[in-house]
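Example S7 (structure tokens).
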């Protein structure tokens, strides 16, 4: 899913004090939006469980000939020079022909499945699939996966006769 925007509005995220952070701030690059609208700025963590979705949003500016490609994002583990992908998703995008830079807002939802183990500090990256020269934005240690719901200490605490029953 994408939205071309001739007059690009700067991406704004919010810090813990709910104060707007301008685009020039290094933390305001891409941000994550969880299926239940939990926003996190790069460097902040979100907690998800199996069955959730992580919505990855990014912006990119493009000029040149018309181009069809895919916006691709993955969750996994960054290891030195390799990103070990565990979950990923992609969506088709179209860049219109333009002689001037046009800002595109991109997003893709990554379903959280049991293919990823419960754990902490998972990483995230995205790319334009056929054009790695566009860059590979990453956010490290940004996703914690909580496994299946757990219960403990379930017990009867009292029982009594109800009068008039």
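Recovered sequence:
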């Amino acid at each position: 899913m994408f939205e071309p925007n001739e007059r690009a509005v700067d991406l704004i995220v919010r810090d813990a004090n709910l104060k707007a952070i301008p685009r020039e701030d290094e933390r305001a690059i891409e941000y994550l939006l969880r299926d239940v609208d939990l926003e996190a700025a790069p460097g902040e963590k979100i907690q998800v469980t199996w069955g959730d979705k992580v919505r990855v949003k990014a912006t990119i500016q493009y000029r040149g000939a018309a181009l069809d490609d895919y916006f691709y994002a993955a969750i996994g583990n960054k290891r030195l020079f390799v990103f070990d992908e565990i979950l990923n998703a992609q969506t088709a995008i179209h860049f219109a022909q333009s002689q001037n830079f046009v800002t595109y807002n991109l997003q893709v939802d990554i379903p959280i499945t049991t293919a990823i183990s419960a754990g902490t500090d998972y990483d995230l990256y995205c790319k334009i699939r056929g054009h790695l020269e566009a860059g590979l934005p990453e956010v490290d240690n940004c996703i914690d996966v909580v496994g299946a719901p757990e219960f403990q200490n379930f017990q009867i605490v009292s029982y009594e006769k109800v009068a008039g029953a």
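Notes on this example. The mean pLDDT is 79.
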